Amino acid sequence: MSDTTSAIYAITLELDGQRHHFQCRDNQTVLSAAEEAEVPVPSSCCAGVCTTCAARIQEGEVHQPDAMGVKEDLRNEGFALLCVSFPRSDLMAVAGQEDALYQAQFGQYQS
Ligand code: FES
User: Fold this and answer.
1) Which atom of ligand 1 approaches the CA of 44 most closely?
2) Does the Cβ of 96 fall within 6 Å of ligand 1?
3) Can you list the domains of the chain with their CATH numbers?
4) Is residue 22 within 8 Å of residue 39, measured between CB atoms?
5) Position in ligand 1 atom list of the atom nearest CA 53
């Protein structure tokens, strides 16, 4: 038997104005837990690159070492890529933030 134990966290995810509640293990991505709960979070690459699954964490903490598509300072502002985000606490987050993340990262370069 494996002696690894994993914590389970309560996730509240808002998507298109609707709140969804589900659980996520600490070794499971929030996206995969959302999919198990049949919450239709948009996703594409599932590798932390495309930002389709971007969300904004409002409460709680995630571990997202592979989130290549989000700059560090924006991660600190709460942006997260759910396909590579592992919960480290109960979470409250808003999904569907791809456009907001794009604006935050690149909006300053547009005229
Ligand atoms: S689905 Fe591409 S970054 Fe998450």
Assistant:
1) 1
2) no
3) 8-109 (3.10.20.30)
4) yes
5) 4
| d(CA 5, ligand 1 centre) in Å | 27
- What is the tens place of the pLDDT at every residue in 72-83? 999 999 999 999
| pLDDT of 88 above 70 | yes
The closest alpha carbon to 43, from 99, 101, 82, belongs to: 82
Q: Does 68 contact ligand 1 (Cβ within 6 A)? A: no
Distance of CA 46 to CAs 2, 15, 21, 78, 80, Å?
Answer: 27, 18, 21, 19, 13
d(C-alpha 105, C-alpha 27), whole Å = 28
